[in-house]
Amino acid sequence: MLDLDYLDSQDDTIVAVSTPPGEGGIGIVRLSGSRALEIGCSHFRRKQDLSRGSGLKRDFSPAARKLYHGYFTDQQGEAIDEILFSYMPGPHSYTCEDVVEINAHGGILSIRNILNALMHSEARLAAPGEFTRRAYLNGRIDLVQAESNLALIRAKTEKGMKAALQGVQGKLSASIYDLRRTLLDISAEIEVNVDFPHEDVEWELQHRGEIISQVQVCKEQVDRLRERHRAGKILQEGLKTVIAGKPNVGKSSLYNYLLGENRALVTDIPGTTRDLLSDFINIQGIPLKIMDTAGIRVDGDVVERLGMDISRHALEEADLIIFILDAGTGITEEDHYVYRTMDEMGEASLIILVNKIDLTTGMTPEVIGQGFQYDGLVYASILENIGMDELKRAIIEKTYAGEIQGEEGALVLEARQGELLQRAAALLQDALVSLEGNMPMDIITIDLNQAYERLGEIVGEHMKGDLLEVIFGRFCIGK
Ligand SMILES: Nc1nc2c(ncn2[C@@H]2O[C@H](COP(=O)(O)OP(=O)(O)OP(=O)(O)O)[C@@H](O)[C@H]2O)c(=O)[nH]1
Ligand SMILES: [Mg+2]
Known about the structure:
Blueprint: H1 4-10, E1 14-17, E2 24-32, H2 36-42, E3 44-46, H3 47-51, E4 68-73, E5 79-88, E6 99-106, H4 108-120, E7 124-125, H5 130-137, H6 143-154, H7 158-168, H8 171-195, H9 201-237, E8 239-244, H10 251-259, E9 277-283, E10 286-292, H11 302-317, E11 320-326, H12 333-343, E12 349-355, H13 365-371, E13 376-379, H14 388-397, H15 401-406, H16 415-436, H17 441-459, H18 465-473
Parallel strand pairs: 1-7, 8-10, 8-11, 11-12, 12-13
Antiparallel strand pairs: 1-2, 2-6, 3-4, 4-5, 5-6, 9-10
Helix pairs in contact: 6-7, 8-9, 8-17, 9-16, 16-17
The structure holds guanosine-5'-triphosphate and magnesium ion (MG).
Guanosine-5'-triphosphate (GTP) binds near residues 272, 273, 295, 356 and 359.
């Protein structure tokens, strides 16, 4: 179900520079569409032809997937750059259409001139992601695979890249298709029996029981995929890790330690940090978006209070909070105040780091356990580099990051996919409630069909043009 404007522009032959802007060893310009070969060839001259001075004569018809050495020429037949020319006929190309790739020297000017010449020959400049969008619209890949392409480009770690590649290869899509098939089977079974009702009450009960267990299995599978979205989100966006605590406990010291450089100011004056600092680090392949915050306390001057508001906001978004206590001061009312502030926020995992154990060691786990609940507890002295490996281990173990470590296989990387999974899970839950509440069977199929459709949207069935516009608009030009 695509709007027509969208289909119209599908007929254009598009062109874009596929390598990043700026100087490079090579620059690639890519053409795709029914006129790609004709337009591409009209600007190509083989080396021997040019040296023989064969003017504008063109009888070049390239074989598929072969590289030809020669020159790119402008409208007047003037050579612009020395290039390698290749032709990939559809449907065996990235877009399923005829594709021509021009490998030029990566100069900014030569690439721009090549692009301009091709646009002069009526190739249209491609919109962001339009090559991949065509691959999707032409049925070569589904939407999950298209989105995984983008995730692959944007991956921050090796693990992120591997997960995205699994998506490109269709592993996630395969589980979605399996689920849809099962839901279809269940609906079909219900419908057959609605059309031919049985008088037998015993049979009805047993039939309902079977349907319940089949829907339960589907629901469990959807829930498992949702778990994998939490892990996938970490790989995509980084585990949002907020370092929190009352002033002067060593938050900025930890931030600097993890970053490996002195980015944040560290002083013995409480209230040193006012702004939020954040950066990406990588712990055993897990990307962390790590944030140093202003110490939270009841009073403080105007600037400090503004800083604390930012800290609270960061806490709301956190996947993981490293709550630092100070072994030097022991547990104080201020620590309880920070804890209460955090407690009101989301569902982040909480690791307590008892810092400055070089000063005293009076804070036993029992004492801490009386005041606070936590997922992990680590004793450390950032100053003396004690406990830092334990902290890293705790970060991996006490968060969803642990799941990424343990399992191979496709992860759900996109928020869009996660949201649709959540809606499918809710619909399956509704179906289960109705089934157990002895509601009529045909009502149950409504929920099942809806869940089937939400899963379909994940792989991109029945997508509207404007929604695709948004999805592919996030891609870079030339992809
Ligand atoms: N003895 C000792 N001192 C430490 C340790 N870690 C940090 N400090 C000191 O504690 C003081 C405060 O450190 P910061 O890292 O600035 O603390 P903070 O939590 O960022 O403080 P605010 O930004 O004011 O909230 C500094 O003088 C650090 O050198 C430690 O393990 N042992
Ligand atoms: Mg600080």
